[in-house]
Amino acid sequence: MSSAALAYPGKSAEAFRTISEVADELNVPQHVLRFWESRFSQIKPVKRAGGRRYYRPDDIDLLKGIRALLYSDGFTIKGVQKVLKDRGLRHVAEIGRGGVPEVAAPAPLVIEKVVYVEKPAPVKKPRPTHLRAVPATLHLPFFDEPVSLAPAPEPVARVVEPVQPAAQPVAIEAPVELTPVVVEEAGMAAEDRMRLEELLDELTGLKARLQSARAA
Hints:
Blueprint: H1 3-7, E1 17-18, H2 19-26, H3 30-39, E2 46-47, E3 53-55, H4 57-72, H5 77-87, H6 89-97, H7 190-215
Antiparallel strand pairs: 1-3, 2-3
Helix pairs in contact: 4-6, 5-6
C-alpha cells in the first residue's frame, strides 16, 4: 500500500492530494515542491482549471524519495538527477516508500593542496685570492674630468701691429774689378771727363756697398 494512503485514512488509496496536503506531509513549503517540479521532469502532477495541482500516490512517493536523497543523503540537485537517470523513477519512489536502503552519498571532492617550498638562498662562492678587488669608483682619463658648462668668453678686440716686411736680401754680385781708365787729357773734352768721373764715383760707392753687405 502507498504511504500516501496511510497518511490520509479518510481518503481512498487512489485519491489525489492537493499541493498543500503534500507540503504538510513532506514538511516542506509549497514553493519548494514547485521548484522540484521545474528541476525534475519526472514529477508530473495533474493540473486542472486554475493551475491547481493534484498529486497521485506515486507522485507523492517520488517526492518523498527526492526529499530523502536531498535532505538525508546529502545529494545535490544534479546528484538526484543522475540517480533518476541511472536507476530510474521506480527506484527513487521505492526509496520514498522506505523499501530501498539509502543510496550512498557521492564521494567527497578531493581538494588539492598547494605547498610552497621556500628555495634556499644561493651559497656565495669565495672570491679567488689572485684577483684584485675593483674600487667602486673608477677614474678614467678623458672621462672623469668635469665638463665646464660656463659660457664661452666674449672675443676681445686686439690691435694688430703691421708686420714690417723683411728686408729683401741683397744679391751679392761678384766684385767688380775696377780697371783704371787712362784718359788722355789732351784728346778728351771737358764734358766727357766729368762723365767719366761720375761713373768712377758710382763704381766706387757700389764696391763699398758690396763689401759692407758681405761683412754683414
